[in-house]
Amino acid sequence: MTKVLVATDKPFAAIAVKGIREVIENAGMELVLLEKYTAKGQLTEAVKEVDAVIIRSDIFDAEVLDAAQQLKIVVRAGAGYDNVDLDAATARKVCVMNTPGQNSNAVAELVFGLLVYGVRGFFRGDSGTELKGKKLGILAYGNVGRNVGRVAKGFGMEIYAFDPYTAAQIIENDGVKAVATMEELFTACPVVSLHIPATAETRKVVNYALLSAMPQGAIVVNTARKEVVDETSLRRMFEERSDFKYLSDIKPDIDAELAAKYPDRYFATPKKTGAQTAEANINAGIAAAKQIVDFLRNGNTQFQVNQSV
Ligand code: 3PG
Q1: What are the pocket residues of ligand 1 if the criterion is a CB atom closer than 6 Å to any ligand atom?
Q2: Is the pTM of this model over 0.85?
Q3: I want to staple 145 with a disulfide (CB 3.0 to 4.6 A). Which of 86, 138, 208, 237 is the partner?
């Protein structure tokens, strides 16, 4: 019988697992569950005899792929697939997919949770500021960026976006001002929300030149990836700009240092929380299960993100 493994270090909500199970079992396949595992060895053991795997931010590298001799497809239930070694998967004829858009509302809502927490002085009771009327810069107008723009309208923010892969007209049709460069975005907006994936091209792209160009009352919200921010620049901004705040859903490598030195201006969630809602888990998990069934039965590769051989 075809076996589908759900391997999640950070588990889906139980209701999402139930939905995934229904899709897999209704297709006549068997669901195998590995949740909250603590060692890579548990993952390499669990993948041994399965045909398909659903993961989240779980590291899926060449070693894991080598252990998965029967594997045909791995679906990252979520947007970013920087945790999967795409070349190694291609070399082993394994299809890799993601589930774009399925968890983006959850991430967008967290942006505003972090923002309100930040502008209200981390709820310590001091007088803060409001978001209404402030300029918000959205770095990358993809699925999450668009949802951030939608919610920002409710707050009465003035919205700007930079996205080299989206036509300016598409951005402007949403009532969002499209800017031509990242420099323009950071120069115009005291609040910037990051929504770029971690790739070779985006690594450390948020650097001192951009950060230091931000107007007074600068706040950067990172619900994307830690790799996109240059941490030396981040440290320097905290040292030089007493108005600067950084609110993140991913702990930077210098988390302990920033938390100790700047408790009023730096906050990172204890665990990555953006996509951790029942709704996002259901959407992404069930989409992943359906994509697996459609791939194994019909060869549908619509959401494939690696090269096929
Ligand atoms: C994503 O890329 O989809 C988000 O970063 C969510 O990641 P998670 O599934 O590990 O919470």
Answers
A1: 10, 56-57, 78-80, 103, 272, 274-276
A2: yes
A3: 138
